[in-house]
Each structure stands twice: as structure tokens, then as C-alpha cells.
Amino acid sequence: MRHLSRRGRHALLFGALVVAALAMTGLGAGGMNHTTRPVGSPSSVTTAPAPAIAMTPSGPVTHQGRWLTDSGGRVLLMHGVNMVAKEPPYEPNMVGFSDEDATWLADNGFRVVRLGVLATGLMSTPGVVDNAYITQIAATVDMLSLHGIYTLLDFHQDGWGPAEGPGVPLGDDGFPAWMTRTNFAYNSQTSFPLYYITNPAIQAAFQSLWDNAAASDGTALRADYAQMFAALGARFAGNADVLGYDLFNEPWPGTTWQPCTATQNGCPELDASELDPTYASAVAGIRAAGDQHLIFGEPFTLFNFGVSTTHIAVPGGDAQAGMAFHMYTTDPAKEPNVLANAADWSASTGGALINTEWGATTDAAAVSRQGGEMDAALMPWIFWSYCCEVVRSLNSPPAGANLVDSTVGALVRPYPLAVSGTPTFSSYDTAIRALNFTWSTNRVGGGSFAAGAVTTFSVPASVYPDGYGVSVTGGSVVSGCGTSEVSVSAAPNVSSVTVRIVRGASVPVTCVPLASVGGIADRPNLVPEPSGSAATRARDAAPRSAGRTTAYALAGAVLAVVVAAGASGWYLRRKRPA
Fold first, then answer.
1. Contact criterion met (CB below 8 Å) for 226 and 215
2. What residues contact 406, with CB distance under 8 A and at least 6 apart?
3. Beta strands 321-327 and 352-358: pairing type?
4. Is 71:58 a contact under the CB 8 Å cutoff?
5. Rounded Cα distance, 543 and 10, in Å
6. pLDDT, tens digit, for every residue of 414-435?
7. Of the residues 340, 416, 545, 567, which has the fewest C-beta atoms closer than 10 A?
8. How far apart are the C-alpha atoms of 130 and 118, rounded to whole Å?
9. Which of the 8 DSSP states describes residue 40?
10. Per-residue model confidence as pLDDT tens digits over 439-480
11. 400 with 464: CB under 8 angstroms?
12. Low-confidence residues of the chain, pLDDT below 70?
């Protein structure tokens, strides 16, 4: 597939296998129906410029229900990117992530980076935290903070860990070999993402953590896991530029994963017996270190396909916690299911929400569609990934040929960064670069804002190299024109405010051209190309070469799909880029 990354292609095939298995159990695409959020019509109020006032969000970030909030109580709808260094020494600065990258991210409106932290870097020796590694992670956090970018610390893994033992490959990245307890299960050494359903050794390694088995040092795995978070908490407690913690990237439900595909209800028993106690141990470690940052647990990976939900508890039952989730479906029609399931989870638990992975593609149409769905759902999001879907290489500056124009043109967009009220509607038309956003002046969690409170919009210069216009219904622009952030204040006694930002001078408040920073207006693929047909997607997702099949007998339906798809061709091992 020309525009889909290896992670994206593999996730597509993996999801197809699971979805096909679900179809064989009677779960169809029509099983989940959700209505869209109703939107009211704002009143018409004449707009007028006013003096600029402070508008930059400030930490610490907390939450009210699903909404992330800044220290002033404004709702944060941040856009961001992932940055994970998956090779030794697992340090972003050592793979080329630098101040130049942070500058580009800030200039283009990205205000959060999900930064990978790997157990192989944190605790390569049993029971001994590598504080030098944490210092290197902290250096990147500090560098990002200088550009007004928050960091979400992501405990990352893919396929449990890189090795079962000396010279014995297992998955890709994550846990060190001394924490890898496979109980002599067969190691098929298959590759991402099929290793989750085809490699019994990987499944057994996950199961050992869920069962809280002892690591090679005799300590319970959950205690080692919690110790790592306690060390991070001790280092980052009180750092207002840290958004929080993502406790576990894409957890897999061990050896008993099949029930999770049986119904749309997911696997509530495994949520309760495996994820909940594991997450609770990490929360206890963080809080014992005096760290009060937000904490996010992820549902089992199968949630991300949009065919089943989750019943995980708010991690540790903590007041400052919520759920981070991903969106990787095989059918675009299921993408709204993922977002609706996440919103339903928050409505039932009161937990915070953030999407921490989507995309994994350079296809402009897919990026535009999925980003639009996230924004319409009023969801803060973090795109996968900075390298190599936004920049081709971390060894070159983020400029010119090193930028992936198809991704950048669809991903970089204006959006409401911090909202003094409750968001109710958002849409962005990529083709004409027009943002429409409405919010209620009611403060989330109750109460109201003081007069003059502002809602801040990120307006990247690269989107509007020839200037932009702003129209406001129910308020007025109170920031200078031509800036990369625009502030709007609600008029007295209004219940809602609507803002429209467009290129050029076609609206009442017109802003002068922005400083030239290499705009995207003249780049190809600004207007998304039409999506490929289903037949084309199926053709491009087909295996590239024949390889050996696994000796492990999968559950009947999944095995049949694997064989029919010739999925063994994906078993050729490779290392995915950070």
C-alpha cells in the first residue's frame, strides 16, 4: 500500500483476522449504532477586535469527567504526535529527536508528545532502576516544555519484549528478558501484529504478568512493574509540563484472549482480573512517590478495532485517572464505534479520555478522515507517528523533502486548544481550510468563568500562509491578528459562542498574512485524494511473499482466516522504525 506504513498495513491485516473471526461468531458491522451529537444554532452577535490577553494553557492538567482541563479549568483538545525510540538505548535524543523537531511541532500546533518509556531501558537489571535512563527521558521532557509542549509518558511495548532469552528473539520491544516468563511455550518467532494470535510464547509472557508470576529474580512481576512507575513518579512529581502516564501500550489478554472476540461486550472478566489489578499496582507506585499527574489505562488491544467494548475500571479507582485508547479499524465504518465506545466508557465511569494512537499512514485521505472524526468527537488526539509518517528521518531537519507532504497537509490544521466552557461542535474542511467550532459557556464540572475568560485556537502559519479571517457569533476576538494562536472571549450573558476561521479576507475580522514558515499551500496532497476502493485495499494488504506458517493451532475461525489470507507471508521478521 503506497501510503500505509508497515505498522498500518500489519494492523489492518491483524484487525481483519480478528474481525473475520467475530463475523463467524455473528458480530456484523451493524451491531453497534450510535447517533451523532446534536448541535444547536448559535445566535448572531456582531464581532469586534479587542486588546490581546494571555491565552497559553498552563499545567498541571487534570480532568472533569471525560474532559482534560488546564489549571484554569479550560477544556484541552490538544493535538499531538507519538515519539518512541524502540532500539537501544531507547532514548529519543539518541535517535535524532531534537530541538528542531520540537520547534516544528510547536509551530504547527502540536501541543503534546506521547513519549515512549521502555522497561528494557528503565530496568534492564532485575530490581535496579536505571536513573540515567530516566534522566535522558527527562531531558526530552524539558526540551519539549521550552516549546510549550506537554509530554505523556508512555510505557511502551510491542509483542511483550525483544527476546525470550540470550539469542532467542520474541517480539519487538518492551520488557527485558529477565521479566519474560513463557513457561516453555512454543516460540513461533512470528512478526507484528500476528504474533499476538500466533505466538504462544508471547501470549504466555503476558499471562505471567496478569497472573502476577515471579520474575527470574523471584519478585512478583507486578511489583517490578510498579517499581518502575514509582521511579518515574519520583522524578516527574510536580512537573506541570508532564500531562501524565499511559500505563501500558496495547495490552494483550494473554493465553485466554478468545473470549474477548466472542461478543460486542468484550471480556469483562479479564478486564477485572488482569488489567484492573495490574493498573492499580502502577497507580499505587506513582501516588506513593507523591506524583499527582493524570494516569491513563488502556483497554485490551481488541477494543481498537471497533467491534467490542471494554469494562476496565478507572485505574486504581483514582480521582485523577482515565482511559487512553487507539483507533485501528479494518473498515472506516467502524471508526465511529471506537470513539462512541470510549465516550460510553467515560459516561459510565467518570474517567478522563484521550486518544493516544491513530493513523499509522501517510495517505492524505485517511489522515483527513480520521482526524476529522476525532475532532468531530471533541477528542484530544495523538497521531502515530512523528517518525516516519510526518518526517521521513530523524537524522535530517523537519523541512523540505524530509517532510511527508501528504501527511502534513492533512494533519496540520487549526483547532480549539483551550476552551472556556463545554465544547459542543467542531468541524474542519481540509479542502478549503475552514474551521467551525461551537461551545457552551457553561464550565465543565459546574459553575462559570470570570468575565474576560478566553478560548484559545491554534492557527498554524503553514495552513494560512496568505492570512486568515475570523468570525465570531456570541463573542469577540481579543488577540492580535496574524498570530499562530487566536483568543476569543464570550460576550456577557450568552450561552454559546461559535467561531469560524477561514483563509483570506471573506469574514468580518481579517488577519494579516502570517510570517512565512514554509506554508503547505503549494504542496501536493493538501486536498485529500479519494480513498482507494475496497478491492484495492484488499489487494494492497495481501502478503508480499510466502513464509513458513506457525505450528500453533489457532482457534478454528482465526486459523481459517490466517490460512485463507496467506498471512504467513507477514511472518518475515523486521524491526519497525521508531
1. no
2. 3, 362, 363, 364, 367, 524, 525
3. parallel
4. yes
5. 10
6. 999 999 999 999 999 998 999 9
7. 545
8. 11
9. P
10. 999 999 999 999 889 999 999 999 998 889 999 999 999 887
11. no
12. 1-54, 481, 505-578
Distances (CA, A) of 179 to 120, 186, 281: 10, 17, 16
Taking the mean position of all CA atoms in its chain, how far away is CA 520?
A: 24
Buried b (16+ CB within 10 A) or exposed e, 86-124: bbebbbbbebbbbeebbebbbbbbbbbbbbbbbbbbbbb
The set of long-range contacts for 544-553, using a CB threshold of 8 Å and a minimum separation of 24, is 544/569, 544/570, 545/569, 545/572, 547/571, 547/572, 550/188, 550/190, 550/198, 550/199, 551/186, 551/188, 552/186, 552/188, 552/198, 552/199, 552/200
CA-to-CA distance for 253 and 316, rounded, in angstroms? 19
pLDDT given for residue 466 in this prediction: 86
Amino acid at 402: N
Asked if 318 contacts 295 with a C-beta cutoff of 8 angstroms, the reply is: yes
**The cell 483514582 sits on which residue?**
318
Contacts of 428 (CB under 8 A, 6+ apart): 371, 372, 375, 413, 414, 415, 434, 435, 436
Distance between CA atoms of residues 307 and 124, nearest Å = 37
User: Which run of H or of E encompasses 499?
Assistant: strand 496-503
Separation CA 544–CA 418 (nearest Å): 45
Q: How far is CA 311 from the centre of its chain?
A: 20
218 burial type by CB count under 10 A (0-12 exposed, 13-18 middle, 19+ buried): exposed
Query: Could you tell me the three cell numbers for 172?
Result: 519487538
Structure-block grid coordinates of residue 144: 519539549
Q: Tell me the three cell numbers of residue 469.
A: 479571517
Strand-strand pairing, 242-246 and 294-297: parallel
Residue 269: phi, psi to the nearest 5?
Answer: -65, -40
Measure the CA–CA gap between 42 and 76, rounded to whole angstroms: 22
Give the other-Cβ count within 10 Å of 209's Cβ. Answer: 24
Q: What is the Cα–Cα distance from 472 to 552, expressed in whole angstroms?
A: 61
Phi, psi of 267 (to 5 degrees): -135, 75
Q: What pLDDT sits at residue 43?
A: 29
Q: What pLDDT is stored for residue 482 in this prediction?
A: 74
Peptide bond just before 92 cis, omega within 30 deg: no
Q: Are 137 and 91 in contact (CB under 8 A)?
A: yes
Angle between helix axes 221-236 and 200-210 (nearest 10 degrees) is: 70
Q: In whole angstroms, what is the distance from residue 339 CA to residue 325 CA? A: 9
